[in-house]
């Protein structure tokens, strides 16, 4: 299955001042598979998995002399490693912290060699290691986007038309209906590569569910190692509960009423580092950057993947198939989860954008906008509607509060269109178009 990640990796290989590349992302988002595909473009591909072959860890135990390390790897793997012709891949590199440190010396002493590193729980090592600025490059690997799912499902042309669609050039009605039908599948299956592959093999939702359960169990197995015996229960509770709280302000008592605040905070921090959840921080929206006006205390969370969210919530496909308004499941949180996932991909794979929302509380009047997106020097408000219709009181209140903001966006099941002078209606399946629509206002 091809994805945009392949293009990002290829772009990296062609950079004249290329640095060693580190792939970051949750477990089973397709990091290893993508690197192996890239390796097919090289004369030779050398993969070192520190989990499967711990003997290689000893090569980094002494002085980090890159020439000697490369010669030793060549001897053990019985392959010649040649700069410009070989792709050297260190997988599960978090198990060899010295190898992470050594990456900088590949850049300084052997810049012609293509070197990639990845690890399922790499984030926990990166925060403790001296990573030199300007010596490494990062790519952030996330689940398949909806458009990537369309292509994997054989609807490449439809995906291209969705990408080109806009308020003044919406999809024809039959194509809109087809896109909504595909979105319905994606919202149940999600974007985890293994789940999509299992589904597409026989168009089996049961096979997809089995793969989702396997991934969930893999994450739970990690918790024991990461949280320790004292914190594992709180982490497991947070992992189980957060999918049901998507779209709501995080309240510790809802996550684990029996745990202390510092335990819950530690659990949420762990899940964030593992990239299983992402925080959506409350911002004043008064200007950009949004982080400058954001609160560390008030935030919402979204899950890694909408399909895994469904599995954690125990949704059965039969109920999903028969439901007329599937996006109303769990108070419309499925739709908000989906848009959040799409927005995390808005800057491509070389960036790791943050998510923000706006919540204003005045006496007798509250307003909340689901997401804020930075562009053209403004914070553009985005409201997500699970049904075909819905009032836009909050988005209009935001635009009234910040009159210089050029537009607001409503995401729903409706086709492209306009609602008044400033509000643009974007169908959910085209949530990935939001950045380009905003840039068009610059």
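-> sequence recovered:
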């Amino acid at each position: 299955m091809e994805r945009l990640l392949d293009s990002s990796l290829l772009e990296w290989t062609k950079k004249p001042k290329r640095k060693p590349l580190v792939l970051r992302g949750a477990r089973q988002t397709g990091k290893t598979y993508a690197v192996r595909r890239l390796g097919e473009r090289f004369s030779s591909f050398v993969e070192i998995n520190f989990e499967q072959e711990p003997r290689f860890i000893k090569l980094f135990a002494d002085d980090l002399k890159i020439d000697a390390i490369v010669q030793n790897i060549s001897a053990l793997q019985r392959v010649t490693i040649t700069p410009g012709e070989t792709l050297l891949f260190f997988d599960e590199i978090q198990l060899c912290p010295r190898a992470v440190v050594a990456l900088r010396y590949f850049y300084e002493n052997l810049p012609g060699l293509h070197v990639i590193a990845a690890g399922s729980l790499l984030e926990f090592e990166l925060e403790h290691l001296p990573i030199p600025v300007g010596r490494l490059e990062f790519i952030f690997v996330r689940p398949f986007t909806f458009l990537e799912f369309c292509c994997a499902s054989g609807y490449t042309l439809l995906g291209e038309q969705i990408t080109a669609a806009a308020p003044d050039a919406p999809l024809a009605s039959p194509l809109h209906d087809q896109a909504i039908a595909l979105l319905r599948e994606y919202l149940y299956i999600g974007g985890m590569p293994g789940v999509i592959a299992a589904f597409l093999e026989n168009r089996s939702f049961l096979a997809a569910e089995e793969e989702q359960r396997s991934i969930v169990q893999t994450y739970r197995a990690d918790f024991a190692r990461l949280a320790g015996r004292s914190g594992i229960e709180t982490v497991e509770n947070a992992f189980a509960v957060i999918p049901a709280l998507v779209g709501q302000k995080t309240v510790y008592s809802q996550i684990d009423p029996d745990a202390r605040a510092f335990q819950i905070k530690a659990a949420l921090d762990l899940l964030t580092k593992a990239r299983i959840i992402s925080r959506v921080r409350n911002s004043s929206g008064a200007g950009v950057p949004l982080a400058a006006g954001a609160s560390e205390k008030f935030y919402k969370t979204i899950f890694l993947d909408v399909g895994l969210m469904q599995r954690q919530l125990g949704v059965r496909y039969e109920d999903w198939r028969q439901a007329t308004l599937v996006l109303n499941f769990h108070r419309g949180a499925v739709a908000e989860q989906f848009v959040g996932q799409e927005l995390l991909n808005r800057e491509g794979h070389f960036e790791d954008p943050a998510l923000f929302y706006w919540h204003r509380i005045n006496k007798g009047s509250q307003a909340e906008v689901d997401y804020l997106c930075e562009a053209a020097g403004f914070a553009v408000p985005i409201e997500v509607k699970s049904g075909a219709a819905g009032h836009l009181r909050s988005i209009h209140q935001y635009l009234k509060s910040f009159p210089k903001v050029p537009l607001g966006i409503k995401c729903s099941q409706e086709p492209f269109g306009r609602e008044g002078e400033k509000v643009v209606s974007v169908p959910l399946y085209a949530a990935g178009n939001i950045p380009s629509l905003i840039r068009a206002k610059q």
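The CA atoms of residues 240 and 312 lie 6 Å apart.
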